[in-house]
Amino acid sequence: MGARVLYGQAMPPSIVFDVNETLLDLEPFRAWFSERFKNRPDAATWFSELLRISFVSSVTDRYVPFPDLAASALETVAARSGVLVTASDTALAANIFTTLPAHPEVADALGHLRSAGYTVAALTNSPLPVAEEQLANAGIGGLFDEIMSVDTVHRFKPHRSVYQAAARLLGVPESELVMVAAHDWDVAGAMTAGCHGVFIARSGQVYSTSFEPPNMTAPDVGEAARMIVRRYG
Hints:
- This protein is α/β, with parallel strands linked by helices.
- It folds into 2 domains: about 150 residues, 3-Layer(aba) Sandwich (Rossmann fold), CATH 3.40.50; about 70 residues, Putative phosphatase, domain 2 (DNA polymerase, domain 1, Orthogonal Bundle).
- The protein is about 45% helix and about 15% strand.
- It is built from 9 helices and 8 strands.
- The strands form 2 sheets. It has a 6-stranded parallel sheet with strand order 5-4-3-6-7-8, sandwiched between helices. Strands 1-2 form a two-stranded antiparallel sheet.
- Helix 8 links the parallel strand 6 and strand 7.
């Protein structure tokens, strides 16, 4: 990736982060699932169902906001286990989701990138007000130049239109956008759109060999930031 030159200064690429799991720790949500449902279903099953219906939504051009899909996915996986989900369940789950903590290395990593001259942005499947609330509650909202949502295109990641829209909003070509995510499908989607991809291999996260390999792999966001600066200057 070659950096642009503006007024004689080399411009580093824009770094765009996925939010949930990549920046924010989902452990409180997993713990609630375990306590409420005794892992029948577990949080991983719910997330897989949520991804499935979001992918179908993008392919069939039937956009439903992510929180509504999340509630529907919860009802579906609970019904498969013979569990009744109440309105208080969905409300509590939504509240936990908006108060997730940042992973411990995230704030320093974002600050490191900003001090090195990078544009730092977030890109999420959640509606913009939800994303802003999440990042503010985690104490990192002020570390982003832009917070972006798929609401602008009415399709979910990893649809290529999401990453193309992000590049337009940031004022860069796709080739100068680096997507950082703890989900291989997110990284693969960005790379399909012409972006560079950095995979965060957090515990339990494995990059599928069926996808184009990421440009970089790091164990956490802190190491990813150091690798980005070393690679792109």
